[in-house]
Design a protein that fits this description.
heterodimer; A: alpha/beta; Rossmann fold; 7-stranded parallel sheet; 8 helices; 22% strand; globular
């Protein structure tokens, strides 16, 4: 017997990344823009998606993939009642969606009829950051009551973002949240990150987000 | 938190390279883990014994090469290492930073045994 060292140098996420690239190619071919929406539990992911759908539904066709750790269809039901196709993926207790689950979700949606797919990831600020799903953008819904220290505590998720939403800004007078401190942490991790402070409850800031997203969808369909 | 699926991916990757090399046994797995990669080595080690059971990787030793998190200050070009918290540049207090290392997470190499080939 002889002991031999075999060099590998391959990312441990390489299988996931391969499937993620297939998902992205599939979406791009069909000119469907996809957003991976992440957040902690209770940040307002579903409310934010519903508020976005409400404002865009006359202009664009939107599908939603709902990632949940348990087989409760509360979120998916809300999307379907808003008149949009939604598919629920139960991760079976896992803390994140991965590219293969995302692929299953995509095959259950009528992609040929859609302009935008929003993937609601599992509520968690750690694990979803490590798995590329094959979307075009990573978006985080942060929220004021979570506290202004979150970028410092969960740097990985902030680093991989293309869009940051700061939800529940209407609660700023009632909680200790120093916006400058929060944004300074974000700036260190992700300089120049596109950020929209909003409130899904009062609609504050939603116009700016919707204008930006509408333009993004139009540009994407033109260039895809 | 997600170390079970990470450990399964690690096993599959190691097995595919071991098979390509006609290994009869894998004795060690050498992994590079950056400080910022949010992977807990102890958890990977914990799951490893379960997932690798009944494969040629059973009993392989996991070696973790931990890489520090090094940031580069865009204002004064200082490189500095961070331990736990995200801190501004120690030299100029600058906040504009890029990450030089610390995000690594890959399988560097495996150590295998195979039947000695007869040299004729």
């Amino acid at each position: 017997m002889s002991a031999i060292r075999v060099p590998v140098v391959e990312k441990i996420f390489s299988t996931n990344d391969k499937i993620a690239n297939q998902n992205r190619q599939n979406l791009t071919n069909k000119k469907v823009l996809a957003i991976n929406l992440m957040a902690s539990p209770g940040a307002g992911k579903t409310s934010f998606i519903l508020a976005t759908i409400k404002r865009l539904k006359d202009q664009f066709r939107i599908g939603v993939i709902e990632g949940d750790t348990a087989p409760v269809t509360i979120d998916a039901d809300k999307i379907i009642s808003a008149g949009m196709p939604a598919v629920q993926i139960n991760t079976g207790g896992d803390c994140h969606l991965d590219a293969s689950m995302m692929g299953d979700g995509l095959s259950a949606l009528p992609l040929d009829e859609l302009d935008l797919v929003i993937v609601e990831n599992v509520g968690n600020l750690i694990c979803p950051a490590a798995w590329d799903l094959g979307t075009h953008f990573n978006l985080l819904v942060a929220s004021v009551p979570e506290g202004d220290d979150k970028p410092y505590k969960y740097p990985n998720i902030y680093r991989g973002l293309e869009i940051l939403i700061i939800n529940k800004v209407d609660l700023q007078p009632y909680v200790e949240f120093k916006m400058d401190y929060f944004r300074q942490g974000v700036e260190m991790l992700n300089p120049g990150l596109i950020t929209f402070p909003v409130s899904c409850r009062t609609d504050e800031g939603m116009d700016a987000w919707i204008d930006w997203l509408s333009q993004k969808i139009i540009d994407f369909k033109k260039n895809a | 938190m997600h170390e079970l699926s990470v450990t399964e991916s690690l096993l599959n990757l190691a097995l595919s390279h071991a098979n390509q090399a006609n290994a009869t046994k894998v004795t060690a797995i050498n992994i590079v883990v950056g400080r910022l990669s949010s992977i807990v080595d102890d958890s990977v080690q914990f799951y490893w014994d379960f997932v690798a059971e009944d494969s040629i990787c059973a009993g392989a030793k996991l070696n973790f090469d931990r890489r520090p998190a090094v940031l580069h200050c865009a204002d004064c070009s200082t490189d500095y290492t961070i331990e736990h918290d995200l801190t501004p540049c120690p030299k100029c207090g600058g906040m504009r930073t890029t990450i030089i290392s610390g995000e690594e997470f890959f399988l560097d190499s495996i150590e295998i045994e195979k039947e000695a080939e007869k040299i004729s």
